[in-house]
Amino acid sequence: MNRKDLRPDSSPQAAFGARLRSSREERGWTQEELAERIGYSSTHVSSVETGRKLPTLRLARGADGALGTDDLFERAFRNVRNAGLLEGFPQFVEHEGRAAEIRLYEVGVVPGLLQTPAYATVLARGAVRRGAITDEQAEERVTLVAERQAALARTPPPLVFVVLDESCLRRPIGAPDVMNAQLDRLLEFAELPHTVLQVAPFALGARRPFDLPVTVLTLPDRSLMAYAESAQRGHLERESSFVLPLLTSYHQLQAESGSQAEAVAMISTLRKGTL
């Protein structure tokens, strides 16, 4: 791609590449010199600069370190990554990372906060095969799962309440060893002092108040926020007139679902059955 063909305003990916090239040229460095400093090939650097390849978090941080740009490229990278996510989700992740309490309900698959890397990878690769995302976006999705989980390992940790629809446990994702490890991860989660894990059984039927996944956050100032997704976008809601009824429904869901001890027993039984 020629210089005249570059359009920094066409996408976050193109803007990242143009910014990387201009910062490099301001220092009088060749692509080979920058590549050596950040641990990539010059071909890779060229592909990122011209927008043919997505940047990675490691490359962005390496560029910031080599070029002395503080966190300029890391922030630009997050814009690139967010372009492959549902609208509203990046903003939700920021609030999730500082929430005092997290209440979530999931249907069909184990939620990201509880996924193992292997489970997350299988889901991401499935999206690639469907043509929904690229290989690079799949890699970044898995990275984001790890970052979200790490953000919750702060001191003090948030209280995390999770209700899983029974389908999350019974739908096999990946090979048996992947599912085994994921079930083990759920059992480990249930043992933490700041978590509660429940399962909404199929027998709940029409008493289940939610048909789609939902998350309710309690922020440090005790304000509430809800997040839900459709197939095309995510939606953050801060209005108490909307969030409070969701919180009430979530409490009803917890009351109707089995106890944590029952959830652990179900997961343990399924774990033995997948050996």
Characterization of this structure:
By secondary structure, the protein is of the alpha/beta class. It has 2 domains: 3-82, 434 Repressor (Amino-terminal Domain) (Orthogonal Bundle), CATH 1.10.260; 89-273, Endonuclease, Chain A. It is 52% helix and 12% strand. The chain contains 12 helices and 6 strands. A 6-stranded mixed β-sheet has the order 3-2-1-4-5-6, sandwiched between helices. α1 (12-26) runs antiparallel to α5. The protein is elongated, with a radius of gyration of 21 Å.
Write the layout of secondary structure elements.
Blueprint lengths: L11 H15 L4 H8 L3 H8 L7 H11 L4 H11 L6 H8 L4 E6 L10 H13 L5 H17 L7 E7 H5 L5 H15 L4 E6 L13 E5 L5 E6 L4 E4 L2 H17 L3 H14 L2
Parallel strand pairs: 1-2, 2-3
Antiparallel strand pairs: 1-4, 4-5, 5-6
Helix pairs in contact: 1-5, 2-3, 4-5, 7-8, 10-12
In short:
With 275 residues, this protein is α/β, with parallel strands linked by helices. Helices cover 52% and strands 12% of the residues.
The rough form would be described as: elongated
**CATH architecture group name of the largest domain:** 2-Layer Sandwich
Question: Count of helices?
Answer: 12
The stretches of 5 or more residues where confidence is low (pLDDT under 50) are none
When the domains are counted, the total is: 2
Query: Into which percent range does the helicity of residues fall?
Result: 40-55%
